[in-house]
Amino acid sequence: SQKIEQNSEALNIQEGKTATLTCNYTNYSPAYLQWYRQDPGRGPVFLLLIRENEKEKRKERLKVTFDTTLKQSLFHITASQPADSATYLCAFLPYSSASKIIFGSGTRLSIRP
Amino acid sequence: DAGVIQSPRHEVTEMGQEVTLRCKPISGHNSLFWYRQTMMRGLELLIYFNNNVPIDDSGMPEDRFSAKMPNASFSTLKIQPSEPRDSAVYFCASNHWDRDSTEAFFGQGTRLTVV
Questions:
Q1: pLDDT digits (tens, 9 = 90+) for A18-67
Q2: Which candidate in A49, A100, A102, A107 is best for mutational testing of the B interface (most B CBs within 10 A)?
Q3: Mutation target vs B (from A34, A36, A99; most B CBs, 10 A cutoff)
Q4: Which of B68, B109, B64, B61 is nearest to B82 (CA)?
């Protein structure tokens, strides 16, 4: 069956360190992969998009990688700050229906001062 | 634009009652999504529309759930009859999908409690 897996356990990081979140998938052929941030009581907010033929994408302190061989995406936040504390979700747009957006369950990130 | 607007923000209803959730997408967007979020199951896609037409409703849990999009500026998700296990946060999202822009914009969500 098709699965998108993110670390279910919360990730606790010291301020200033790099936070790395993982998204693994099975039985998907994603054309696009997105990362979103969700704060408590609010809807997810888009952060970054990476396409299947791209290895890496950066935006300010954020970096996303996409490895179709490992079937994995990594999301990095460098120089992390307490304001980065939130739940981060990865999402796939499969080839079979590129406008459909399917989400992982998310990983809660806490940055301690 | 005010973004994706959902109503109501909170809904408490008794088991067996009909519940209707409403969504106004961002003007100009051609896709609309309904999601349900719970701690146990995360953010599940229930149904999505392209140009007001339902494309994939395979995520709709059962016949008690139905969704409509009568025009480009309005969609409803109806649960009849509601059950306690339907309690969740329901999100509506919209986007204007093309190869260069797939970002989805989410509403604030409707927190549904069925007692």
A1: 999 999 998 877 878 999 999 999 999 999 999 888 989 999 999 999 99
A2: A100
A3: A99
A4: B64
